[in-house]
Specification:
A hairpin with a 2-residue loop joins strand 5 and strand 6. The radius of gyration is 57 Å and the shape is elongated. It contains 6 helices and 6 strands; from the N terminus they run H-H-H-H-H-E-E-H-E-E-E-E. With 235 residues, the chain is an alpha+beta fold. The chain has a domain of 122 residues: Roll (Nuclear Transport Factor 2, Chain: A), CATH 3.10.450.
Length: 235
């Protein structure tokens, strides 16, 4: 009995060993088949792939956005020096253009500015005649430069007198009494019909050749229609 039992045990052991070996060989094959299937799956991702040209356009647009042009940022540009004329013709052309620009600038003056310039010229002429008559002690020529109702003030607004009669009485006596009178402008400001003179006054009381008194005055004159209408003394 024992030999028969031993033979049956060996037979079952061999069948069990053969079954396990068959199972181990089947499993690697299944694993290999799964890997093959997984390897083929990714190819499905390229079914909706975009055309090559469209991809290129998108790539170039991204590149343009990434590259920022900062060459025109304020303060980064180097000023280009103006080209100098090289030939005689170019130099003459530059001179002509400059003269044309000056002419256009003069013509661009407004009517008000031109009127102001005209008033300034006329006002200076009136004051020049006044000073000449004053230095010559010519009362008639001196009075002629004033309006009939001229007003004399001391700064800031203290009225001294008005009218030619008091002017004649005041300056007529001074012209006869003094041996010499000389007024010399130190500085002059002209604005339309207003003239402000910083002047040096010299007088001779005894000898016409000996100046015995000097004083500085600042006087403002207002001129209208060729006549002095208002005088303001700054003392």
């Amino acid at each position: 009995m024992k030999p028969l039992f031993l033979a049956i045990s060996l037979l079952f052991s061999w069948q069990s060993f053969a079954s396990e070996e068959t199972t181990e060989q089947a499993e690697p094959q299944t694993s290999h088949e799964q890997k093959a299937e997984k390897k083929d799956v990714p190819s499905l991702e390229f079914i909706e792939e975009k055309p090559v040209t469209e991809q290129k356009v998108i790539s170039e647009s991204k590149k343009e956005v990434a590259e920022v042009d900062d060459s025109k940022v304020l303060g980064t540009q180097t000023p280009t020096p103006a080209e100098q004329p090289k030939t005689v013709e170019e130099k003459q052309q530059a001179v002509d253009e400059a003269e044309k620009a000056v002419k256009q600038a003069k013509e661009a003056l407004t009517a008000k500015q031109q009127e102001k310039a005209r008033q300034s010229r006329e006002s200076i002429a009136v004051i020049e005649q006044l000073i000449a008559a004053y230095n010559a002690r010519n009362i008639d020529a001196f009075i002629k430069m004033y309006d009939e109702n001229v007003e004399f003030y001391t700064f800031p607004n203290e009225l001294m007198f008005t009218g030619k009669e008091k002017l004649i009485a005041r300056y007529g006596i001074m012209f006869k009494k003094l041996k010499c009178i000389k007024s010399s402008p130190i500085k002059r400001i002209v604005h339309g019909n207003i003239v402000i003179d910083h002047e040096l006054s010299e007088t001779c009381s005894q000898d016409p050749k000996v100046v015995d008194k000097r004083a500085e005055f600042v006087t403002s004159y207002k001129i209208e229609n060729g006549k002095i209408t208002k005088v303001l003394f700054f003392r």
